[in-house]
């Protein structure tokens, strides 16, 4: 029997995406081993979620370091000790130094609350409202040295409704974030979706466009 696919999760806040992964594993819907939760915030509730699930936790606070580069060096040394096949940024709010990403090419993915390449960075729901778009959503992409700029693997879409504010639109996006992340990780764990120097490939074929989450909560 092959060894379980190992994922390390990075989170800075409440950890709802981590909880979705934990629940999917517990329900037998996702065959991965979550080998660690790594955070830059000692009080992040994600840590409590991980501990409750018996997942090892590590906190590396940036307050202990003089520079971002020094923090990232220590943080990712801890991540590497978990020997994960995939690093999942699920609400990790720090910009990662380019050197750390370049040492781990095609091993990190991030869940971003917009339909990339639109609305990179923060306050994406407000950005979408200000732009007057009819559709918004979430993306899972490969982490590269440029902010929110790596190849987009999968997306989930929601309508922007009349009367929406950033809070209501964000709540609608969150309903699709969890299945989007779970299904993307599933394809990677199964080896059907592969990341490489020549770009992502699905079943051996170059991914021409991001996969889309359907009403059945599956990617196609």
UniProtKB/TrEMBL annotation:
It comes from the Bacteria. Residues 6-185 form the Formyl transferase N-terminal domain. The record marks 148 as: Raises pKa of active site His. The active site is at residue 112. It is an enzyme of class 2 (transferase). Its EC number is 2.1.2.2. CDD domains: FMT_core_GART. Keywords: Purine biosynthesis, Transferase. The keyword Acetylation does not apply. It catalyses: N(1)-(5-phospho-beta-D-ribosyl)glycinamide + (6R)-10-formyltetrahydrofolate = N(2)-formyl-N(1)-(5-phospho-beta-D-ribosyl)glycinamide + (6S)-5,6,7,8-tetrahydrofolate + H(+). (6R)-10-formyltetrahydrofolate binds at residues 68, 93-96, 110. N(1)-(5-phospho-beta-D-ribosyl)glycinamide binds at residues 15-17. Pathway: Purine metabolism; IMP biosynthesis via de novo pathway; N(2)-formyl-N(1)-(5-phospho-D-ribosyl)glycinamide from N(1)-(5-phospho-D-ribosyl)glycinamide (10-formyl THF route): step 1/1. The keyword Transferase applies. GO terms for molecular function: phosphoribosylglycinamide formyltransferase activity. Transmembrane segments: none annotated. PANTHER family: PHOSPHORIBOSYLGLYCINAMIDE FORMYLTRANSFERASE (PTHR43369:SF2). Catalyzes the transfer of a formyl group from 10-formyltetrahydrofolate to 5-phospho-ribosyl-glycinamide (GAR), producing 5-phospho-ribosyl-N-formylglycinamide (FGAR) and tetrahydrofolate. Belongs to the GART family. This is Phosphoribosylglycinamide formyltransferase. It comes from Lysobacter brunescens.
